[in-house]
Amino acid sequence: MGSKSSESITETARPDRRRRGDDARKRRDDTKSRILDAALEVFLERGYADASVAEIVERSAASVGSVYHHFGGKGELYVALWQDYQRAYLDAAQAAVRAAKESGEADPADLLVAGTRAYLERAWAQRELAALFLGLDAPAELARLQRQIANEWIRQNARLLRSTGPEGRLQVAILTGMIGDATHAVVHARDRRECRRLIARSLHYVRLLATDRGE
């Protein structure tokens, strides 16, 4: 009887522990989300250099200890937001390429144009956020990550265009850099009309370079 009672207590305790664990994770996630949301507001208003952890703490209603526990400091907060930004842009471009493939498009240049269009349209839709992350006001530790993401975009575009060899890699590197420059132009467009013209011109150049075989 004693053994059965112990088993019953243990079985009852397990769901309680799971619930407590789930609740703790939810609280941690909620705290991190509040901190990130507050940090983004402060960075957008003040830029990276003039932002302070104290203001982020105040807006998030979190403690200083929570900020440093979850992120380590202002630089790490900026990097976490930048990584979310990059993932969202990569997802948008990849989703556009998948949609184009599903509609029957198979030409590599047309697929790249579809992905680039989605990327640039997102940059315009989120131009304040894009301008923040495209600027020079950023923590020093971001430079290494920027090189990594640039190389990842080059790999993605090379795979899409089936580019190989030194000349193919050079072509894709130039093309990827051009898309980055186009993003800067689109983000700083004066209005939607100018944005549309810049995107159309950018896609024209993307297609030209993507179809160039160096002959």
Automatic annotation (TrEMBL):
One of its GO terms (molecular function) is transcription cis-regulatory region binding. It holds the Pfam family TetR_N. Residues 29-89 form the HTH tetR-type domain. SUPFAM superfamilies: Homeodomain-like. Residues 1-11 have a biased composition (Polar residues). Residues 1-28 are annotated as: Disordered. Keywords: DNA-binding. Residues 13-28 have a biased composition (Basic and acidic residues). Residues 52-71 bind DNA. Gene3D superfamilies: Tetracycline Repressor, domain 2 (1.10.357.10). The keyword DNA-binding applies. This is AcrR family transcriptional regulator. It comes from Naumannella cuiyingiana.
